[in-house]
Amino acid sequence: MSASPPSENASTSPDVVIIGGGPGGYVAAIRAGQLGLATTCVEMDATLGGTCVNVGCIPSKALLESSEHYEFAKLHAAEHGVMLGDVSLDLTRMMARKDTVVGQNTKGIEFLFKKNKVTWARGRGTLRREGEQLLVDVAASDGTTTTLRPRAVIIATGSVPIELPFLKFDEERVLSNVGALKIPKVPKHLLVIGGGVIGLELGSVWRRLGAKVTVVEMLPTILAGNDADVVREAERVFKKQGLELRTGTRVTGARRKMDRVLVDIEKNGASETIDADYVLVSVGRRPALTGIDATALGLTLGTRGEIAVDDRMRTNIPNVYAIGDCVGGALLAHKAEEEGVVAVEAIAGMDVHMHYNTIPAVVYTWPEIAALGLTEQQARDAGREVRVGKFPFSANGRARTAGETTGFIKVIADARTDELLGAHLIGPHVSELVSELVLGMEFRASAEDVGITVHAHPTLSETTKEAALGVLGRALHI
Ligand code: FAD
User: How far, in Å, from the CA of 157 to the mean position of ligand 1?
Assistant: First the structure.
């Protein structure tokens, strides 16, 4: 085994080694650089950014934007008096634009690494221990291996999609997110297994581009765990848009037949076979522990194979931290990023801890869906007495000007103290609108605090104000 430094200038004894360059790992690396820690980030892919930047958040949002423009041009431009004639799709160009956007982001992270003096060790990292000393072996693609001897290690190895035992990914016809982001032509019939965020976002992309899309979900509703009012509205709107939703339906078997996939489903004892040219399996993700031999290291895992951590992101091994999808919880890029910052600041001796009460979760369909804090049911199940305010976008002037009047904002507050407990939004641009409520909850605002705050007119954000006033029975425009 030959040892060579990961880059000419890099130390083989950095303060911190981060294994994984996704949103958790790369943000941790930047923060460590800011704090003056000698930092190496080990990433085995050809580009930085992990799942989110390469095959997740960014390419899916690029395609959601493009397909939304296409659908708008076809269905709604004329309502505005904009007559476009025949609108056609250039899928190759749409995909190329998506790839350009991804490239801008991955290059951006490389720039930020340089700016913050972070070394990127290109290769597959393996963590081991020699007594108290932590060692990370980095195996590069040229066959060389470098051993790093850091003071602290942050594991940020992410997650991978779960496969169905009878339907293995081939990324040709049986797709994970990776294949579903680059289908070479618009499917005739795309079957999506799993009615969660990824299935609904990517299903929406291909429906807008002209595919018939069927979503099969085992649970009684799509978007399990979301507020019941929001789920009802989402199901209504998605069905109206043409998504076929088969809830309470189990997939029992599947086989490939030439360029088709035959998938057996069952609902209430009745069986059926769906014939699709592409299948997206989006039934969840599991922690990826590449290069992390938990047994050999003595690393404690949770029941789902996730790395167990405390609120400073410390594992049970001294000086080994873990963040992001590999520690479970909400599989979200911004949650991974916050955990990364907490881990690094804890390593630097700062007084920090991670809390999860105010992490928003967004579904970037149209209308968008955003969830924050407790649902009404969760609050009631927890024995809280609650008051709820709900305001529809159909009563908002700005939404009417845009012709985007679907959905509502629902605010949940404690009945005694009026403290905000949660908010559930479905409608135009709610991915942006939710931030005001996140800030409110972070500062333990009351519904009245939001309700008496001046919001510019006409804006979609007036819907937030009105929903908050609604908690107090004081909404003005309804
Ligand atoms: P990852 O992003 O998975 O990064 C882990 C990195 O570690 C990878 O680059 C991997 O190559 C590297 N690695 C692993 N093991 C090793 C090793 N031993 N040596 C070297 N490198 C290693 N979240 C949102 O918040 N918003 C969204 O809109 C959103 N959209 C999504 C859409 C899709 C289709 C998918 C699949 C996910 C989406 N997510 C979204 C989730 C988000 O992508 C993840 O939560 C996020 O990427 C987790 O970050 P991470 O750093 O924990 O792991």
Answer: 8
